[in-house]
Amino acid sequence: MSDQTLILSDKYKTFIRYDAPVEFLEGTTAAGKTTVGIFKFMLKVAASSKKYHIIAAKDTGTAEKNIINKDLGIIDDFGILTEYNGNGTKDEKIPHILYHTSQGDKVVYVMGYGDKKKWQKALGGQYGCLYIDEVNTADIDFVREAAMRCDYFMATLNPDDPNLPVYKEYINCSRPLPDYKDDAPIEINEMLSEEPKPGWVHWFFSFDHNWGLPKEKIEQIKLNVPKGTKLWKNKILGLRGRATGMVFVNFDRKRHVKSKEWAKQFIQKDRHQEEYFTIFTSGLDTAYSQESPDTIAMSFSGITNKGRYILLDEKAYNNANLENPIAPSDTVVNYIEFLERNRKEWGFAKNVFVDSADQATLTEFVKYKRMHNECLYIFNNAYKKIEIIDRINLQLGWLSFDEEKGREPYFYVVDTCKVFINECEVYSWLEDKDNTPEDRNDHMINSTQYGWIPYRDKIGVERK
Fold this sequence. Notes:
single chain, alpha/beta, Rossmann fold, Nucleotidyltransferase, domain 5, 8-stranded mixed β-sheet, 7-stranded mixed β-sheet
């Protein structure tokens, strides 16, 4: 037994008392999620009418180190009420905790989700309570199989790539309690957008909720993580996004994402205005597959006389999600409606740029122009001779800023452009190829590039 004491903040006290069928504990590093979560889990096991329960981690060794044997872990908290049999016993071959409760002995199996063959053998029948450690790293098949076999489900997670299926299928179906909604970053709450499941609760915990962690230790943890990196965003700020391999590592919502009202100031009202839009441009990236999540992406942007680029609007959809799949001729009508709406709100983008790999849609634009003489837009083939790596380097340069020197970025996004913002936070390099990004999470990025490539020499450069 350690001499440490479990000190609970008011929020953790509420969490322990609250009764819910499914609970997800997300947040920063060192927030106490596992320590307090496993304590509540064992209380739920004791109250359950079922004998068999599950604790799952990457492997049994991880479970032993981070959950069972650590300070303020299960053995420390529950002492002689628990017996851990790491090699199983004659009657129970799977590693397990024998838990002596007022309702009789309970068996809590300890298993790893990293070995599919092992957990497939271990899972069977129905269980009372299920605890999955770092569910964002778990095999999604394990999560699906285990979750449907339990009465109560708790999982901890660290912010990760928001495109992982575990977010869409499970975590984003939960909601925070009204009293604690503001504890999570706005970005996290916005992602909890799948159809809510009755009673599923999302808990966000940060350093502030871990009253057992000294302030000096919190500061030390923060100092040891480089500011502005994805690790900083994941571990210190608790924001989702891949921790490694990010393409736009310097994209920062607080720095680059602005309101529509902020962008409106650059619409020219008189000739004495210091900064104003001089160019409007638009790009269209297309794909019509009903099998893959290929997205049709439209973007509308403005460039100011001071060289500032601002993504003002976007529209995206994919055929796989539509009851009545669209054809290239439908895309032409949708795109012109998109351009007209933005012309009325922002200004006229005479030249627009369409994915040159999609000759079917370009042909439809030619037909549309022939039939509608009043259409003033010029539909150009997107210029693709600028290599992807060069496009990325240009955008990284425009995103860069220096707080100490007061140097602002030249690249901004209106906060309603959620698809583009999400892509910037997940678009990654391939792990097995140098200087090659993945061929996904980039449709709106491609769309914006088609729009700014012809004007790339106007961005980042002040013009009089």
